Structure formats: structure tokens, C-alpha cells
DNA sequence: GGAACCCTTCAAAGCTATAT
DNA sequence: ATATAGCTTTGAAGGGTTCC
């Protein structure tokens, strides 16, 4: 058995499944088994068997004899992903307001695997405060205030792995997370610039899970209780717009 | 009737978990 | 580390259906 696949996985059938779904997505409408087989390079029997199982799971629908299209279950799954991404749009205005109030940079971080990924950041311009999409700024979870917030719901097993990856003791990481949980805010004590203080507040989704972290970066001298409260309040506003009602 | 296509069956090969 | 058993996946072959 030999097959070359650009997106190879450890389980061959999964690569093939991705290939089949990509083909159906590319075509948009119903596609015949023969056409799918040609486009994916899979033997028709192999394509048929996988499509059959995908149809059982609702990922694919039979639009007629020997014709397939994407299934409605993908819509449900896609909606879940979209709900996660919406936080970026909903956060824009509150981020601008917090920037105007404090005069300092506000960022939004989301989790991606074992890293915290910065996705939006405010920028001061002549026309006012703008929020720009940031590409590629990522930090290990345990090394950043935002990342620590995004670890709050992790199991001990996961925390153990993440702590080990950063050369931290599990107990001290857990104690830090407990303090953050109680405070409702994460403060970075070891900022590269001693004059700057970085604080992060949690953004909750409609299920009450931390889905993002709102970060304010400001001079230590000016970072009082009022700005901490403003940061928490802004994060709470974004959470509320995502459907989270604090209980 | 013949060609083209879809779908199912089944033997073989490959993979994975478990025992030693 | 190796052997083994059981499970999964594959592709060829062939039956059934549709279309011209």
C-alpha cells in the first residue's frame, strides 16, 4: 500500500477522509463517485466505503444514487467554530474604549494548542484608536499572563505537561492559577521591561469557559486598582456579549 | 444488447495492543 | 525487543442497475 498525501496523518484513512471532504467542498454541489475517485486518486471502492461511513455520521449526504455532497452536520460543527471566532469582532469596540480610557495598548489572546496567540491589538492613530489583526505573535501558555488565564480549566495532567515544558514546578503553577482564579486577573511579574506592567482578564464564552484573554500593557506607576477594574469590566462586557451571564 | 457506472464482497496486507 | 492475535483497511472482482 502506498499513497502520497500532502496532509498526511498517522492514520491513512483520515488523510483520505480529509481529501474527500476537501473535494466535496471544492465542488460545492453534488459530485459523482467517479469524479471524486478521479480527483482524490482513491480507488472507487475505497472512496465509496469512506463516503458511506461519512454519510452514516452525517458529514456527507447522498444527493442521489452515486452522488455525494457535504452533510448538514458540518454546518453544526462550523457554527461552533464560528462562535469561538466571533469573540474577535465583539471585542473590537470595548478594546478601543479601554485604550482611550487608559491611553495604552490592549490586546486579545486566544489559545492555540499549547500557546497563547495574539489575534487583535489596539493601535493609536491620528484618526483615533484602531484595532488591527495581529498575525503570528504567540507565546507559551505558562510564560504569559494571558496564557495562564487560558490554562484555568486545564486538568492536572495537562498542567503537568505544560509546566514541564516550561521548566516549572506543577505545585507553583497550580498555586499561581488558584490566585489568578480568586483575583479574576493575571499579572505578569517578570515582564521584560521593568517599567511596564502587563495584566490579563478572562473573557468567557456562553458556557462559562475562558475563550480569550484581554491584556492591558501599561506603565507600572500608573497601573492602579482603577485600571485593573476597568480591564476586568471590559472583559466582562465582551463575555456578556458572547452570552455569558455571571452566576 | 452493450457500455458505463455504482456498490458489495472477500482475501490479503497492514496495523495495534498485549503477552512474554 | 520480539512474537502473536485480533482488528482494520485495502483493492480486485463481480453482480446489479441505468442509460443509450
From TrEMBL:
Record keyword Transcription regulation present = yes
This entry's Gene Ontology molecular function terms read: DNA binding; DNA-binding transcription factor activity
Stretches that traverse the bilayer: none
Q: Where is the IclR-ED domain?
A: 73-244
Coiled-coil residues: none
Q: Name one GO biological process term.
A: negative regulation of DNA-templated transcription
Keyword DNA-binding listed? The answer is yes
The protein, known as: IclR family transcriptional regulator
PANTHER family registered for this protein in UniProt = HELIX-TURN-HELIX TRANSCRIPTIONAL REGULATOR, ICLR FAMILY, HTH-TYPE TRANSCRIPTIONAL REPRESSOR ALLR
Protein origin, superkingdom: Bacteria
Keywords noted in UniProt: DNA-binding, Transcription, Transcription regulation
- Domain HTH iclR-type residue range list: 11-72
Q: Which InterPro entries match?
A: GAF-like_dom_sf, HTH_MetabolicPath_Reg, Tscrpt_reg_IclR_C, Tscrpt_reg_IclR_N, WH-like_DNA-bd_sf, WH_DNA-bd_sf
Amino acid at each position: 500500500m502506498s499513497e502520497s498525501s500532502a496532509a498526511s496523518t498517522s492514520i491513512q484513512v483520515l488523510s483520505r477522509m480529509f481529501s474527500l471532504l476537501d473535494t466535496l467542498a471544492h465542488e460545492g454541489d453534488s459530485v459523482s463517485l467517479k469524479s471524486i475517485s478521479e480527483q482524490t486518486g482513491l480507488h472507487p471502492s475505497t472512496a465509496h466505503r469512506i463516503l458511506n461511513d461519512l454519510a452514516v455520521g452525517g458529514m456527507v449526504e447522498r444527493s442521489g444514487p452515486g452522488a455525494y455532497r457535504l452533510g448538514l452536520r458540518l454546518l453544526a460543527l462550523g457554527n461552533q467554530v464560528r462562535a469561538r471566532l466571533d469573540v474577535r469582532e465583539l471585542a473590537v469596540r470595548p478594546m478601543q474604549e479601554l485604550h482611550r480610557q487608559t491611553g495604552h495598548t490592549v490586546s486579545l489572546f486566544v489559545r492555540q494548542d499549547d500557546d497563547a496567540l495574539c489575534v487583535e491589538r489596539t493601535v493609536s492613530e491620528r484618526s483615533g484608536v484602531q484595532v488591527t489583526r495581529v498575525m503570528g505573535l504567540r507565546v507559551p501558555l505558562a510564560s504569559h499572563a494571558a496564557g495562564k488565564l487560558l490554562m484555568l480549566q486545564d486538568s492536572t495532567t495537562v498542567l503537568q505537561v505544560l509546566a514541564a515544558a516550561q521548566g516549572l514546578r506543577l505545585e507553583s503553577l497550580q498555586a499561581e492559577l488558584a490566585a489568578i482564579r480568586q483575583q479574576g486577573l493575571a499579572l505578569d511579574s517578570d515582564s521584560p521591561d521593568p517599567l511596564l506592567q502587563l495584566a490579563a482578564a478572562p473573557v468567557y464564552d456562553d458556557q462559562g469557559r475562558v475563550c480569550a484573554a484581554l491584556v492591558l500593557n501599561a506603565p507600572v506607576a500608573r497601573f492602579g486598582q482603577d485600571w485593573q477594574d476597568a480591564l476586568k469590566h471590559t472583559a466582562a462586557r465582551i463575555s456578556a456579549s458572547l452570552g455569558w451571564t455571571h452566576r
